[in-house]
Design goal:
heterodimer; A: mainly alpha; globular; B: 522 residues; two-stranded antiparallel ribbon
């Protein structure tokens, strides 16, 4: 490893991260000392501007051969994909936030800088090429997220979510540290390149133990069964806007980090870890889809649905090939649009407290708000995997990667699972269009930003469904360039 | 035709319903006559375009014609490519013809959310046309899945009392079938890519080299999806529910075209891509067809609900179609393809007539009717003609199809043909019994005394069905000569595989033969 230097390569690799973090700090300080407590526009747009600067920097500065800080961080194709994906997710989340936070009665403006810090962590995770840097990224991502989960202080469910998330998250981080230590012991390296080079000669048992510990830690962040028990409670208890960020952004960062580490670094021992991921994926998707059927609260249903999608993503990595990694990346892109869209609709329908969170509260929405309900139908059909929406293209690529690597059984299981998932998604659709409203619905206040988010998510869901090619191609080339 | 559309006729046919459907959403929904008339006018355009297609169709060629092909997703080898041949041409025409009929017949049936109903009908037409015209496996699968949802909405929003149950059952059954098919599609394409280019083009995929075990597993993955749609016993149970709960327009499209997709899938994919496995599967398919014929007829017999009775008769009739396809000779196959159209015509007509009667009396129970000939002579006589067509009386469409099928099947498997014939006899029995109860005898329900007969609009909707009943029955050559070249081509492919089959059987079993769950412990 070269000594600590801070040259042009370092600046380039870290610029997007710096843009986001600096704007986060600026927003935090300015709003604390000078901000008008009722003005949500300025912090919102300053934060979005910061993210936009980060995305612009990523687009301008990325380089397939990028290496910085002695090869521990990079801004290569995968990192660019992660930055754009997580950046867009954070932007949409921020855009949804103001009107929703007002409705639930949260006026704290820490929400905006905290989201930016979380995004900074995700960006580090996307570019990490060293387990220690990965650890830094996870911590930077998670701590603001623990706070965000509890941002609605007076709501007991919210406090419970935050505490649960924090305790179990800290526990999972400990697993990661043990894993890093074991890797260090077994291979003498924490950098991906070093680990990969040392794998053939490393003691097998220690490596397997290290892999297992990393699987547990990342599995926790993604919400893979059997490390998912926190997820439904946290996703249900947190404010919906935070749930949207957690189910999409945090999951994306962890999956991208896992894809890079497993598919590229641990390629020499893929026979061992693909077995583990095969079973985890099979267990996760089956369990989550079956349990989701029984849910009557739409947030909890979407929570289980997001666990099921974590299972599909794990299956993509379990293919063990760059094709699988690229499929996971593309799936995350599609998932971001459809899931954020679904949560945006949940927010638009939701009211103060727990109101309108039950599936039965959606009865007759198709008559009352045809456009909103129509968008929800698109998101749900996409989550189900129906062409020509992005969910289908994404699932198709995963199945293709699985069949290509010989995992036909897992591919069949995945497709059967999406049939099962059809049952609970369909129920919401039928509730909206085929039932008459059971009770007088409260009139919903106009929320322009939220509607913009729904519109953007709709466009993304349709556009990437019909033209998935270039995004997937980019992901595939990024993996092959590193493989 | 006064106009010529030289560019891409198939694309125009395919996309015009969707474009018009979207346009329709901009039309004011009040008064309801506005969306009704607009939709009817719109729906005539694809029909006229498909007549133009018929004019350009070259009846001496068996391969896909009027091809269009544009690159779509190069990294997957997916192209937007369309084509039409003897298997699909009549079904395309049937689809575009049934849509205006359905819209015309739904005039009084659908009173709420008329505009949305018309939109879903046009969307359904679009999706069905897409599946029929696709010359790319990806495109086919896309429309195959897409077809489900307009129909599900039609049943779920405008359906009867049990509509939720029927909708969920309909969607999940079909999705379950296509789940396996998608994996098989990708396996097939990736296997083909090992020796050739990565492509979803149907005709190229016909030449995929597959071992016998692979063929068998892939064939069944496709076949199960198609069997659900046909529907064949024992995966038919969604059909009676869907039919019974659907509004008339939904039932007509369901019976008219949607059910044909299963048999069409066999002809287009399962047989030519996996010729050996498909032929080896004949004991199972033939047995299930015969069981379907007899079982469908027996269950139809005691049904108290007219619509349910016709729904079960569909199970029986589609069994006949499958029997014809599995005769694997020119007569049987051509008869099967023609009978698909016949069934579409006759059963649609029956559902329409039952629906029109239901609009008047709000009941479909056979026991509520009796002796209505004197009250509604026009309805009764049209019903008689369409029903005779469905039973296969000589001179009507059903006779030609069933005769060819039984002739072909008798050559191939005499016992199955003999059993299948009983289904035809039973078909006459349950339909005539129903007709006797409903139309003849003394007037049972006094409220029926003032029943209005069919209006001019309704007769206009039924006229094309009557015309086709006789046209196909009297001059089937016009239809068959466009079907036969394609049938011959399929037969030579099947023949060729039988010669090559000996070699393929000697090859090593493929990896796929190992139990799939073992892959977890690779």
């Amino acid at each position: 490893m070269t000594g600590p230097s801070f040259g042009a390569a370092e600046w380039r690799a870290i610029a997007p991260f710096a843009a986001v973090i600096v704007s986060g700090i600026a927003v935090l300080l300015y709003e604390t000392f000078f901000g008008d407590p009722r003005d949500t526009e300025r912090p919102l747009w300053c934060s979005i501007l910061g993210i936009a600067a980060g995305l612009l920097a990523s687009l301008l500065l990325w380089d397939p051969g990028s290496q910085a800080f002695g090869g521990t961080l990079s801004l290569d194709g995968i990192a660019l994909f992660a930055n754009i994906l997580c950046g867009l997710t954070a932007m949409l989340t921020l855009l949804m936030a103001p009107s929703y936070l007002v409705v639930i009665g949260v006026r704290t403006k820490e929400f905006y800088p905290l989201t930016l810090f979380t995004l900074g962590g995700m960006m580090i995770m996307g570019g990490a090429r060293d387990l220690v840097v990965l650890f830094l990224g996870i911590e930077l991502m998670s701590f603001p997220a623990y706070v965000l989960a509890g941002v609605h202080r007076r709501e007991p469910r919210c406090g419970e979510a935050s505490l649960k998330y924090f305790v179990l998250g800290a526990f999972a981080t400990a697993f990661l540290l043990y894993g890093i230590a074991l890797f260090w012991g077994a291979t003498g390296a924490t950098s991906y390149a070093g680990i990969k080079a040392a794998l053939p000669t490393a003691p097998g048992l220690a490596v397997l133990g290290a892999v297992a510990l990393v699987v547990v830690a990342l599995g926790f962040k993604v919400g893979v069964a059997p490390f998912h028990f926190w997820a439904p409670d946290v996703y249900e208890g947190s404010p919906t806007v935070v749930t949207a960020l957690m189910t999409v952004g945090i999951k994306a960062a962890a999956i991208i980090a896992a894809a890079r580490f497993f598919v590229l670094t641990l390629a020499p021992i893929h026979v061992e870890w693909t077995v583990v991921l095969w079973w985890l994926a099979a267990l996760t998707m089956t369990l989550a889809n079956v349990v989701a059927i029984a849910q009557s609260n739409i947030k909890r249903m979407l929570a289980y649905s997001s666990i099921a999608h974590a299972g599909y993503l794990t299956a993509a990595i379990a293919a063990g090939t760059p094709r699988g990694g690229a499929a996971a990346l593309f799936y995350l892109l599609g998932y971001a649009f459809m899931n954020l869209g679904a949560f945006a609709v949940v927010m638009a329908v939701g009211a103060k407290g727990d109101a309108n969170e039950l599936v039965s509260d959606y009865a007759g929405l198709g008559m009352r708000r045809p456009l909103l309900a129509g968008a929800m139908v698109l998101f749900l059909l996409s989550l189900m995997g129906i062409p020509p929406l992005v969910g289908f293209a994404a699932k198709l690529y995963i199945v293709e990667a699985l069949v290509d690597s010989g995992c036909v059984g897992l591919a069949v299981l995945l497709m059967l699972n999406s049939v099962v998932s059809g049952y609970y998604y369909l129920r919401v659709i039928m509730e909206m269009f085929m039932h008459d409203p059971v009770k007088e619905a409260p009139s919903l206040a106009p929320r322009p930003y939220l509607m913009i988010c729904v519109g953007l998510a709709t466009i993304g869901t349709i556009f990437f469904g019909i033209f998935p090619d270039f995004a997937l191609d980019f992901a595939r080339r990024s993996f092959l360039a590193l493989g | 035709m006064g106009f010529r559309v030289d560019a891409s006729i198939l694309s125009l046919i395919l996309w015009s319903p969707l474009a018009f459907g979207l346009l329709l959403l901009l039309v004011p929904s009040e008064p309801v006559s506005v969306p009704r008339r607009t939709a009817l006018t719109f729906s005539l355009v694809p029909f006229l375009l498909s007549l133009e297609m018929l004019g350009r169709f070259d009846s001496s060629v068996g391969t896909l014609q009027l091809r269009e092909s544009v690159e779509w997703m190069p990294s997957l080898g997916v192209r937007y490519s369309l084509g039409v041949d003897g298997f699909s041409i009549w079904l395309v025409l049937l689809t575009t013809l049934l849509t205006p009929i359905v819209l015309l017949a739904s005039w009084t049936d659908i009173r709420e959310r008329v505009k949305e109903f018309m939109f879903f009908m046009l969307a359904l037409e679009w999706a069905m046309l897409g599946a029929l015209l696709a010359a790319d496996l990806f495109l086919f699968f896309l429309f195959w899945e897409l077809m489900l949802f307009p129909m599900a909405f039609v049943i779920g929003i405008w359906g009867g009392g049990q509509r939720y149950y029927a909708t969920v059952k309909f969607v999940l059954y079909t999705m379950a079938g296509s789940a396996l098919m998608l994996v098989a599609v990708l396996y097939l394409v990736l296997t083909h890519a090992q020796t050739g280019p990565l492509t979803f083009d149907i005709v190229s995929l016909y030449d995929t080299r597959l071992g016998w075990y692979e063929q068998t597993l892939l064939f069944w993955a496709f076949a199960i999806a198609f069997m659900i749609k046909v529907p064949m016993v024992p995966v038919h149970t969604w059909l009676p529910d869907a039919h019974t709960e659907a509004p008339t327009g939904g039932s007509v499209h369901l019976a008219g075209v949607l059910l044909k997709m299963g048999a069409y899938g066999f002809l287009r994919f399962a047989l030519p891509v996996f010729p050996l496995a498909a032929q080896d599967a004949f004991p199972v398919i033939v047995a299930l067809s015969v069981v379907g014929i007899v079982y469908g007829a027996m269950v139809a017999f005691p049904q108290p609900d007219m619509k349910r009775l016709v729904a079960y008769s569909s199970v029986s009739h589609m069994g006949v179609v499958m029997l014809g396809i599995y005769a694997f000779n020119q007569v049987g196959l051509s008869g099967g393809v023609l009978q698909m159209v016949n069934h579409g015509v006759s059963t649609s007509g029956l559902f329409l007539l039952i629906g029109l009667m239901h609009d008047r009396t709000h009941t479909r129970q056979i026991s509520d009717y009796g002796g209505i000939w004197a009250v509604v002579p026009v309805w009764s006589s049209i019903f008689l003609v369409v029903m005779l067509g469905s039973m296969g009386l000589p001179g009507t469409n059903g006779f030609v199809g069933e005769f060819l099928i039984l002739l072909g099947a008798f050559h191939a498997h005499p016992w199955a043909a003999a059993l299948g014939t009983t289904g035809v006899v039973l078909g006459a029995a349950y339909l005539l019994t129903m007709y006797k109860h409903v139309v003849f005898g003394p007037l049972r329900n006094l409220k029926d005394a003032n029943l209005p007969d069919l209006t001019k609009r309704e007769v206009a909707a039924l006229a094309p069905i009557l015309a086709l009943t006789f046209l196909i029955g009297i001059y089937p050559r016009f239809f068959l000569e466009r079907i036969e070249p394609t049938v011959d081509q399929l037969l030579s492919r099947l023949e060729g595989s039988r010669v090559a089959g000996y070699v393929i059987r000697q090859e090593e079993p493929a990896d796929l033969a190992a139990p799939v769950w073992k892959e977890a412990s690779r």
